[in-house]
TrEMBL record:
UniProt name for this protein: Gluconokinase
InterPro entries in the record: P-loop_NTPase, Shikimate/glucono_kinase, Therm_gnt_kin
UniProt pathway: Carbohydrate acid metabolism; D-gluconate degradation
EC number: 2.7.1.12
């Protein structure tokens, strides 16, 4: 898993309002008329939490850790390396969408971690604009070879999801296709610093495209 442990801080906390941070490099602040939902996705070990917190910090946006919204039954299954079914995930995905929209009522954007392994899971989040009409949804898909992510999960401690879940998540994974134009794909095989810098730049470019 990508982690900040034992690394010196390289970026100072953002001090500008979220609306300003969403329009980098002096671009016109037309993005203030929209709300942005950034969903950081990918299999176990890809660094969703690390990257999501970095984006939220640097864009001065609230952060939602998706794993914290799983019902207890889901957590117990995953802690025993039992893959979740579609039925296990529907209420969790809906709850994440509703919590995200609630946060957007007080912020121009929000960053959420959610594995969103299948297209139909991503589609649950994609309907957010039906409830909050000026929402723009961006999926940030973090990817790397299974062997890389397996090694990261094996090295981490204190997380209920074990290494056995990596293979099952890759089995379930439906990588975003070209027609999913709201997806930003980032290779996370490199160092934490490289991944964070690349992802933040890609997110900022996506916001500018939507101006």
């Amino acid at each position: 898993m990508l982690s900040h442990e034992n690394r010196p801080a390289t970026v100072q906390p953002a001090s500008k309002p979220a609306a300003d941070r969403l329009t980098p490099n002096g671009a016109p602040n037309d993005a203030a008329s929209s709300h942005h939902l950034f969903i950081v996705t990918g299999p176990a070990g890809c660094g969703k939490s690390t990257v999501g917190k970095f984006i939220a910090k640097n864009m001065n946006l609230p952060f939602i850790e998706g794993d914290e919204y799983h019902p207890r039954a889901n957590v117990e299954k995953m802690s025993r390396d039992i893959p979740l079914t579609d039925a296990d995930r529907w209420d969790w995905l809906t709850r994440l969408r509703e919590e995200s929209l609630q946060r957007l009522s007080a912020s121009q954007g929000v960053v959420v971690t959610c594995s969103a392994l299948k297209r139909k899971y991503r589609d649950v989040i994609r309907v957010a604009p039906y409830y909050f009409h000026d929402v723009l949804v961006h999926f940030i898909y973090l990817h790397a070879p299974e062997s890389v992510l397996l090694a990261r999960v094996q090295a981490r401690h204190g997380h209920y999801m074990g290494a056995g879940m990596v293979h099952s998540q890759f089995d379930a994974l439906e990588e975003p296709g070209d027609e999913e134009t709201d997806v930003i794909a980032v290779d996370v095989s490199g160092s934490v610093d490289e991944v964070e810098t690349t992802t933040l730049a890609s997110v900022q470019r996506a916001v500018l495209r939507d101006l």
